[in-house]
UniProtKB/TrEMBL annotation:
Chain coiled-coil ranges: 76-111
Similarity comment: family membership: Belongs to the calcium channel subunit alpha-2/delta family.
Origin superkingdom: Eukaryota
Originating species: Dicentrarchus labrax
Predominant localisation class: membrane
MF term (GO), any: voltage-gated calcium channel activity
PROSITE patterns: VWFA
Residue span(s) of domain VWFA: 244-381
Keyword vocabulary terms for this entry: Calcium, Calcium channel, Calcium transport, Coiled coil, Glycoprotein, Ion channel, Ion transport, Membrane, Signal, Transmembrane, Transmembrane helix, Transport, Voltage-gated channel
Gene3D superfamilies: von Willebrand factor, type A domain (3.40.50.410)
Localization, UniProt: Membrane
Protein's name according to its UniProt entry: Calcium channel, voltage dependent, alpha2/delta subunit 3
Length: 390
């Protein structure tokens, strides 16, 4: 039985300088066998009746046997409808998680001194020499469940795993774990609505990993847990799922010389990360906006090798002058992302604006409010590539 991961990827931050990458996933297994069964029984029926026609003297059985014609198109349509239904349900579960995560994250105020006891997947139910629960451990009720390969799980709570090489009380981690507690009730609710779901995950770019249902993790013989969600295939695939990307390059006077060289290299390396399924454009801005390739203004192009090379050549023609006014460039970026989405091409749900500058001093809350909040159609997909001034 193959396991399918449905993942949503989002970048979020209250402040551009402090953006976090999150990936939410649900794993799904049962649908595959359900469909497999259906296809098999239909094909057995179909070929069986054909066989009957050929081998047995059909006429003799004519009265007792009826050969039923199967409408292939209808069959495929039915399957497609069912498949769509299954995927829609899973995608909905993931979307509910994304919404809850956005909301909780939005409500949360980072607090570097935050103290918070969470259930650490490795430390739960561990006791010290005195028989007391260890810190971040605590009593965690587990019961074997055959939906989860007879593993002992807790269906009301998730657990958090932190890679061995990271400090499990790091303020970034404690804050992330704290606000993502809000996901517990969505995990439970998703599972109640759709019992074919298996594991539900939340992976943070800071490295912590929340897993539902709660389960105890055991270190290997060296006492190490090498698992880092950021190295998992589902995380990488989701984080690199098809994207529409607009890259904004600051070409104001302060970007003269080496900085412009670094900016070009940065754009070039962002382009390296894009693949054939992604769409992009590059806009340079000072007090005006300049499409790096003026013939391709107002749209996005496929990030294939030819287009990327073509844009790289144009990057060499950039020069720095004037003052950098980001507002208009951002508005343009939002507009073309939105227009492009209307065309039905591109990724529909994963859009990003990448900003290459030597410093973002202004906040453009009004632009974000207009294009983003409060409807929140576009999750804040903003990555800031900031490089040092030397
Ligand atoms: C999950 O663990 C918590 C803490 O031990 C416990 O209160 C709760 O009853 C458990 N839930 C289930 C469904 O076992
Ligand atoms: C789980 O355990 C039960 C009884 O112990 C057994 O019948 C069942 O086949 C097991 N399921 C799996 C998935 O191992
Ligand atoms: C985009 O192209 C149109 C027509 O080709 C032109 O009128 C417009 O000024 C261009 N916009 C920018 C920002 O270059
Ligand atoms: C793109 O368009 C679809 C359908 O109109 C809409 O559901 C979706 O929210 C849009 N995506 C973004 C990022 O605006």
């Amino acid at each position: 039985k193959p396991t399918i991961f449905l993942c949503a990827f989002f970048i979020m931050g209250d402040c551009w300088l402090n953006c976090n990458l999150y990936v939410l996933c649900s794993s799904v297994k049962l649908w595959a066998s359900a469909f497999g069964g259906e296809i098999k029984s239909i094909s057995a029926k179909y070929s069986g009746s054909q066989l009957l026609q050929k081998v047995v003297k059909y006429k003799e059985f004519e009265k007792s046997v009826r050969v039923e014609e199967i409408d292939g198109l209808k069959l495929v349509k039915n399957l497609a409808v069912k498949m769509e239904e299954v995927f829609r349900k899973k995608a909905e579960a993931t979307r509910r998680l994304v919404e809850a995560a956005e909301e909780a994250h939005h409500q949360h105020e980072e607090n570097p001194d935050l103290q918070y006891e969470y259930f650490n997947a490795v430390l739960i139910n561990e006791v010290d020499e005195m028989g007391n629960n260890v810190e971040l451990g605590g009593e965690f009720l587990l019961e074997p469940n055959d939906h989860f390969n007879n593993l002992s799980v807790n269906l009301s709570l998730s657990v958090v795993q932190v890679p061995t090489n990271m400090y499990n009380k790091d303020p970034d981690i404690v804050n992330g774990v704290y606000w993502s507690e809000a996901l517990n009730k969505v995990f439970v609710d998703n599972f109640e609505r759709d019992p074919t779901l298996i594991w539900q995950y939340f992976g943070s770019a800071k490295g912590f990993f929340r897993q539902y249902p709660g389960v105890k993790w055991h270190p290997d013989e060296h006492g190490v847990i090498g698992f880092d969600c950021r190295n998992r295939k589902w995380y990488i695939q989701a984080a690199t799922s098809p994207k529409d990307v607009v890259i904004l390059v600051d070409v104001s006077g302060s970007m003269k010389g080496l900085r412009l060289t670094i900016a070009r290299q940065t754009v070039s390396s962002i382009l390296d990360t894009l693949g054939d399924d992604d769409f992009f454009n590059v806009i340079a801005y000072n007090q005006e906006i300049h499409y790096v390739e003026p013939c391709l203004n107002g749209t996005l192009v496929r990030a294939d090798r030819t287009n990327k090379d073509h844009f790289r050549e144009h990057l060499d023609k950039l020069f720095a002058k004037g003052i950098g006014l980001l507002g208009e460039a951002l508005a343009e970026a939002f507009t073309i992302l939105n227009d492009f989405n209307q065309t039905g091409r591109g990724s529909v749900c994963s859009q990003a604006i990448m900003l290459v500058t030597d410093g973002a001093t202004e906040m453009y809350d009004d632009v974000f409010e207009k294009y983003n909040w409060p409807e929140r159609k576009v999750t804040l997909f903003l990555s800031l590539f900031l490089f040092s001034s030397t």
